[in-house]
Specification:
By secondary structure, this protein is mostly beta strands. It has one domain. It has one helix spanning 95-101; strands spanning 11-19, 45-46, 57-69, 73-90, 116-126, 131-136, 140-146, 157-163, 166-168, 171-173, 175-179.
């Protein structure tokens, strides 16, 4: 039903799950079931405290080609090369954030950072207690374009995730979605 306050969400909590496994770890059966944590190499691990003010940024883009008819103007717009990026800011210095900031590095040697390919899960909880989870269907490409340390702010590790799709028939899937208390979706 439209024009209902029940349809308006303030996201009060969020988590991001990470796995460096070659194949995606098992998903929880539904949004009411806890994510089983394990080592990043084989299971799901958590990035920890996130910057709630920054939230999850999402940028969608694609190339457009405009086609005009002689004497009548714009008649069609073609679109291709869809792209989806998600951003989030992790606040903790932990195993997950170091794996993305300094991949392949050790406690005593830092290697030139390269993009990390990982499975991601985005988990949000609304003020009404609704949990929504989005798990990538393909490994995402993670990069850290900026990293700053200073004397007045806490360190925010701004992570950009390029989300890749998987072709299923005529559609391209990006995420598997779970919502608590949701009615089954009928195609």
């Amino acid at each position: 039903m439209a024009r209902s306050p029940e349809n308006v969400n303030i996201w009060q909590d969020a988590r991001v799950w990470l796995s460096l496994a070659a194949t995606r770890p098992t998903l929880p059966t539904d949004a009411d079931t806890a994510v089983t944590e394990g080592p990043f190499a084989t299971g799901w691990g958590e990035f920890g405290i996130l910057d709630g003010e920054a939230g999850f940024g999402e940028e969608r883009s694609f190339d457009e080609t405009e086609h005009y008819g002689w004497g009548i103007g714009l008649i069609k717009i073609g679109a291709r090369n869809f792209k989806l990026n998600r951003t989030f800011s992790a606040l903790e210095d932990n195993e997950a954030t170091r794996a993305v900031l300094w991949p392949g590095s050790t406690e005593s040697k830092l290697l030139m950072p390269k993009p990390v390919y990982a499975w991601l899960g985005f988990d949000t909880t609304s003020d009404l207690g609704t949990v929504e989870r989005l798990f990538t269907v393909s490994r995402a490409r993670l990069t850290v374009p900026n990293n700053n340390r200073n004397e007045s702010d806490i360190t925010r590790l701004e992570i950009t995730a390029n989300i890749f799709g998987k072709s299923v028939g005529d559609d391209i899937e990006l995420f598997d979605r779970q919502v608590s208390g949701a009615a089954p979706v009928t195609p």
